[in-house]
Amino acid sequence: MRAQTPVLLLGAVLLTTLAVRKAPAPAAAGTVSGTVTFTGTPPKMKPIDMSKEPTCASQHATPVMTENAVTGPGNSLQWVVIYVSAGEQSETPATEAVRYDQKGCQYAPHVAVMEVNQPLEIYNDDQTSHNIHPLATTNAEWNKSQPPGAPPIHTSYAKPEFIPVKCNVHPWMHGYFAVLSTAHHTVSGADGKFSLAGLPPGKYTITAWHEKFGTQTQDVTITGNETATVNFVFKATPY
Amino acid sequence: MTPALAARAPAVPARTGVWVAVLAISMTFAAVAAAMIGRAGAAPDWQQFRLPPILYVNSVLLMLSSGTLEAARARLKHATPARAIGGSASQWLALTLGLGIMFIAGQLLAWHALATLGLFLSTGPASAFFYLFTALHGVHLLGGVIALVYALHRVRQVGPAAAGALGAAALYWHFMTCLWLCVLLLLTIRL
Amino acid sequence: MGKLLAGLIAVITVVSAAIFARHIWWMPPDISVHGSGIDHQLGETMISAGVLFVAAQLVLAFFIWRFADRGDARPIRTFPGGVTPMVVIAIVLVGAEVAALSLVGTKVWAGIYQAPPNPNALRIDVQAEQFAFYFRYAGADGKFGGTHPNLIDDGNGNFFGLDPANDTSARDDIVAASLVIPVNQPILLTMHAKDVGHAFYVPELRIQQDFVPGLDVPLQFTATRTGKYEIVCTQLCGLGHYNMRAYLEVKTPADFAQWLKDQAAQQ
Amino acid sequence: MPDTPRPPLTQPRETAAKVSELKHVPPQTFMRKYVFSVDHKVIGKQYLGLALVAVCTGMLLSWLMRLHLGYPEVAIPGLSTVSPNGAPGGVMTPEYYLSLMTMHGTIMVFFVLTTAPFAGFGNFALPLQVGAEDMAFPRINMMSFWVTLAAFLVLVAAFFIPDGPPLSGWTAYAPLSAVGKDAGPGQGMGQTLWAISIALFCVGQLLGALNFITTTLDLRTKGMSLGRLPYATWAWFITSVIGLIAFSVLLPACILLILDRVGGTSFFIPAGLVISDRLQPHSGGSPLLWQHLFWFFGHPEVYIAILPGFGIISQILPAFARKPLLGPRVFIACLAAIGFLSYTVWGHHMFLSGMNPFSATLFSVPTLIITIPATIVTLLWIGTIYGAKLRFTTAALFCLGFASVFVSGGISGFFLAQPSIDVQLHGTYFVVAHFHFVMGVAAMFGIFAGTYYWFPKMFGRLMNETLGKVHFILTFIGVYCIFMPMHWLGLHGDVRRYSAFTDEYMKGDIPLHKFITVAALFTGAVQLIFFVNLIYSRFKGPKATDNPWQSTTLEWATTSPPPFDNFGGHPPTVYRGPNEYGTPSPSGDYAPQFTPEPAGR
Predict the structure, then answer these.
(1) What is the pTM of this model?
(2) CA-CA to C49 of 20 to 30 Å: which in A227, B27, C4, C38?
(3) Into which CATH architecture does domain B54-190 fall?
(4) C122-266 adopts what CATH topology?
């Protein structure tokens, strides 16, 4: 009895230290997964006419469509950012760079998710000049031209913000930077599915953000290695 | 003092210079006036407002100053022994200066009055042109004040010999008065 | 030295004049109804101006050659007849030239820019923005929807700021990035700029017109030859000015109708 | 006036003595002599020095532009270090090209073509030619230069700010120039600096014009009636009148622009503009208002740049033709006519700006009429060299070259003056060719002619004629190789102000662009000969006599270089007009203005 106490204490200490280590933690680590769908009629995505920029137009066999409300089979909704907005322990910041491409006069990916102060590298893979212009409000706003073959732009953002990104040369080019203060984030795929892995036991608030349909939050509790299912349903309007 | 100059009718470059300046300044104000009329016609966003009444007080002050300036010149012209009446001439000049400075102060009060009404430079085209006109005229009048200070100094120093300088300064000052009256007229018509 | 300069002037004059006369670099072929007037006017001016140019340069060259100071005691000679006849001739000749040019030119100009809007012209709404042109067709109802700058959203292709949610006439408006027109039909463009000044220029069409922010500028023309041509911006509008461009596609009426149908389906 | 006026001369002696104390006396310290000098000759040299720095800058910019146009993909060594944002990896960005273009135009038009022939030579020679000791208001004159210098520094500062230099062209069309940062890189602080710089420049030139006019009217020496004024002085006088009006209009225009940018007003910015996805907080402004104000200045500015050239040529040519200028009165009448007409034609820059087509026609007619006096002036020069005894000094060569390039440039005006042709050629390289020939190259030739002509008077030494002649011939060939092909580009529809030619039909002209680029590099390099000549002759050139060219005007009556008060307190008396060449007289084949009438004439 008296001998067990220190052991328990030790165990508790171990557990806590494990818990605060960066995910994926080897011990107890749950997963939140689910699907993002919509109800109602979403706006119709329109084809983009790039004929003004032949070097880009030639890269696309079929015309590129606008991407601000991309839907899939079963009313699934793509490009929704899902992340832990509350209940998370302290994290060591991510150091690997996020790559953002300007390719075929499109932004790839349409929504780039990054942590605060995580390095961001912007590349111009086209044979034309781009001028990338993130319309930041809480962070510093800037715009830089990248002629063909110019070196990549290295930057990062200090404060969490959803930043619309536009090209000052090609009006149809639009995307987003999602700057988050969490390591647990993902983006819904073409089928609307997502999964946040490596969540240590605890109560979490999961937030889903869509550029057109706004944000939703749900609370979820992780006790061990289980996979909790969280589904988001957005209300879509045609215009 | 070149013999060549002595040979011809006495030329007073300062006076000619002021006439040239009058031409240039008139042109500047004409341009702003043209801009104002064009701008008023360009869009329906021209909202009228009542001019602050103090402007009329200022106008009277400025006209008075022109009068006192003439008085000073008269004193200077009829001065036989330079020292004797030159003094009173400089008093009249000082009075003119005072009136001029009062005018500028009055203009600032007019700005304050407008600001209290919530009319600022960026509020609308009408207020913008009001501030622009008054500021432009004020700056040019400050030039006149400097000229008067200089003329005062000259009168004290060389007496009647300063007639040339004073004449030029007076010409400029009277022009400023006329200019202000024209501006006021334009503003009352437009605003 | 004088002989060298005289020779230089002569050579430069002859070579330049020849290149102009041989049309080695010249305007692309005209595809518009009004263009022939412009071409004629330019041709006339080219001839008269060319004659003046060659004459003046060669006379200058000859005098430079002829009247060098050879150290001899020969007295200088004044220009025959003095200045008066020269001035009179200059005023008469150039004056007549000027009168003729402006008389004819005014008619051509008026034909393009002062012609009353043709009632059965095809109306197309043009918006210039940094750095592209967008063209709007009225659609099935033949009515253009109202534009609301605050609704402009390039991201989802709402370049004109239409309000389809509340404005039914806006729903069927057709927005395209190329100007597609039927051949031999009068076109009436209504030009407006979204952000800064731009210009609409099609060399083959012999037409150029500025977009003035805040104004709706009308522009009329009729294309007479089918094909694909480039519309370029000639008013400095920012960093992308050099590749602000769109295509003008002149189609047969049938092709045009088909194209319009396809576009309507995509909107 | 805050400046020393000359006293009326009908006053008692002793007070006159008092006043004369107030007149400026020869300066002692280096600063007063060469830096903050009130001596019109030093100020003139300072203006010319500024113009020299400016023209080098402007030429360097044009080199970079031409390099990029001819060889768009080639990385220019060192450029990435000069401007990491403007040229990442050495290849310049489109906005950097436009910035170079904007700065090239602004620097050349304002700080070279206006300062050198007008403010520079005018300041140096005008008081000398009228026989005055100095300008009427020497201190205002000094102020004029230092304000202009400040304007230049403010403009150049735009290269060294994070935003980068402005890119809306030397015409700074609103709203691009007025809306600020959102309009893209270079439209932030850089454009504001541009507007401030031009406003300062206007002030500087207004002060200068004030001096020119007053000096010409009031300080002419004994016998120097208006009818006897040298032609250069006439040109400077008429130019100052034009400038006085033009700059008085540009100044408020710039103030309005600055207010739109920093004061939140809407003079030039209409409602409902969406720039960078943001609805601009402006309403009701009129972009055309800026265009009207700017071009009301802008077109007379062309004549501010070229008329001094007219005057310089008309004064120098007779001296080397040893023959009087043909029809001097006609010449002056033409200058006046041009000066007047220049205020009736500004609209021809706006034929396509959605202006009422009827008024476009109204603007076209005076534009065509203005070619008549211009033609007559050219004919006068050609008539002057008929039957002359031409001495081909470098100065004379540049005069004759001036006539040639002015014809070439003026002719193309016939096309652009007609709206119906402007429809096709507006905004193409044809326009670039036109104004570079007629105001760029021609004015530069006037500047060169003046330099070779007055250098002895300025520094007491002659310039090297051999170097001068080589410089002239190569420059003459060069400028034709650069600008004549631009007409052809324009006819073919190549649009100006493009940083690259990506359009199908313009791509075909890239070989011609390469040729022009090479010609531009060559012509620029040739100017080194001129700089070498300047520096060499300044120190090693042969000593000049008082009147090395056997000219008639008053600056040649005094020593080379003249003393501080020009004529050592004994201004010459004028006995005749400046046009007495080829008439036998005690002086030889000419009769200077300052020698007494020889007996028996």
Answers:
(1) 0.92
(2) C4
(3) Up-down Bundle (1.20)
(4) Immunoglobulin-like (2.60.40)
